[in-house]
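Exercise 7. Given the components listed, write out the predicted structure of the assembled complex. Treat all entries as one system.
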Amino acid sequence: MVLAIDDLTVDFTTDRGTLRAVDGVSLAVASGRTLAVVGESGSGKSVTALAAVGLLPGSARIGGRIALDGEPLTPDRQRALRGGAMAMIFQEPMTSLNPAFTAGEQVAEALRIHRGLPPRAAFEAGVAMLDRVRIPDAERRARQYPHQFSGGMRQRVMIAIALACAPRLLLADEPTTALDVTVQAQILALLDTLKRETGTAVVLITHDLGVVADHADDVAVMYAGRVVERAPAARLFAQPEHPYTVGLLGAVPKLAGGAGRLASIAGTVPDMRSPPRGCRFAPRCPFVIARCVAEAPPLMEMAPGHASACWRAPLSQVLEAA
Amino acid sequence: MLRWLARRFAQIIPTLIVLSMLIFGLQQLMPGDPAMILAGEERGDPVVLAQIRAELRLDRSLPEQYLHWIGNVLVGDFGFSWRIREPVANLILQKLPVTFQLSAMAFIIAVLIGVPAGILSATHRDTPTDWVANGIALFGISMPNFWLGIMMILLFSVELGWLPPSGYVPITEDFWQSIATTIMPAFVLGTGVAGVLMRHTRAAMLGALAQDYVRTARAKGVAERVVVWKHALRNALIPVVTLGTIEFGRLLAGAVLTEQIFTIPGFGKLIVDAVFNRDYPVVQGVVLATALIFVGLSLVADLLYMAVNPRMRQA
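Answer.
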């Protein structure tokens, strides 16, 4: 496993008490594979990724184990490997690049830090990298500033920065959410190609199940700071085993499907300062039973590689009855 | 770029015309008759007074006086001091370098104190470092120049005897002696500007450090020191550079009190003496020169803004 997260917890101290944003999350990604982490905003998916690279604010208290290629990631190792062996790209390409430096400089900086390249060579390697993320006329574009790039082109620059040092692990936090649909498809296809070429392990954080279906090998569904279901992508879509996943799949609009009402999951995400005692999805769950409110379900193996945290799983009979 | 410059210059001309009218007009409101002051002992003699008035064109109408003055200014003739009997242009050229040296030193002191203090206070937000920096900035901004000046003279000149209490030695004559005579007034002038620069640098740095590109830099593995001093500072300095240029203009114009306290023969002292003596041509010349410097500096500020902000360059 390139990345192995085991029983991760993240606590934030706020003015109104402590908030557990991530509660016992375990994830793993192998080389050349894409793990999609799916969930609503506030489900803890971004916090999990930031904890892995060590970019959480100092106020966060982190528990559990994180390892890269089997070696535990201490804060010092995270600092040393960040941008080199592990890289991260973010949701906002419009604001994620520094407006005061050229695109080429920003790619070259990573190469100077992690490869120790002299400025001249680093810039040339940066241009080559921009060319590799399919930025046309890279030589000229490298000398331009971020405001001279479109959103999609900026995200390509971000990818070039992230992949400049051929990382073992790439964390992509909603990399295409801010982009047009066509640009979205181009960027994700580019990530797939680069992943195949380099064998990088990818964690793709998204709330878009369409993206998951097309680009992920495995999926982890997160809800209120916990992983509620984990499965190979194809299996998750064919046979979801958690009511929340079922709800999410029901909420995916299908272009072919007529003009009905958009499906949604009733209720809202719980307040993380005082989460429900049992299953956190229980207040919104259509299949809730007494045990769900009393006792939190652990992740239970349904089939090889497929686990669900639901007392009522397998859901096939429940769904038929409904 | 050239078109922008041309447009900028076109804006400057009406500004200067209005300014010159204001300068000329306001001065007429000063109490006291210059002819009476110049006549001295003979101020009782109407013939002498009439003669002086005719000589200085004080018997003409105000528009006539204004046009005569501004016409000469346009060809570089700022007039003749009534009191010191020297061309105003010469006086300005004598005194300006003195004030410029003082202001430049004050500005360097202000930047060396204000910018690092602002950065430290932003990176150590809500810690004792931040509180101390803010306290010093507030002290610098609110402390009257004349009080600080007098206190420094008492300490460094009277008590310790390290520095001369007053006077000025040109930098071309004796470099170290020149620094010794100007370091105290420069510090007095610089403290206020340091406070302003510190507050603005702090605010701009806090803004920059919260930006997504700072997170990107950290994700790239950039050391925290470089994140602050390169990635954030480069952006935070954009507004501070503009502000700094204007503050430099204020230093050039605002040294009046400080130059009086340290008896430095600069711009400030020139204009105060001229006002007391109703030496209109000098007052007009000095104020107009100051206005010109300000207009010039605001142009410099715009050019610097373009230089440090890539987004402005091809506009």
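Discussion: Chain B touches chain A at residues 211-213, 215-222, 231, 234-235, 238, 308-311 (CB under 8 Å). The CA atoms of residues 68 and 281 of chain B lie 12 Å apart.
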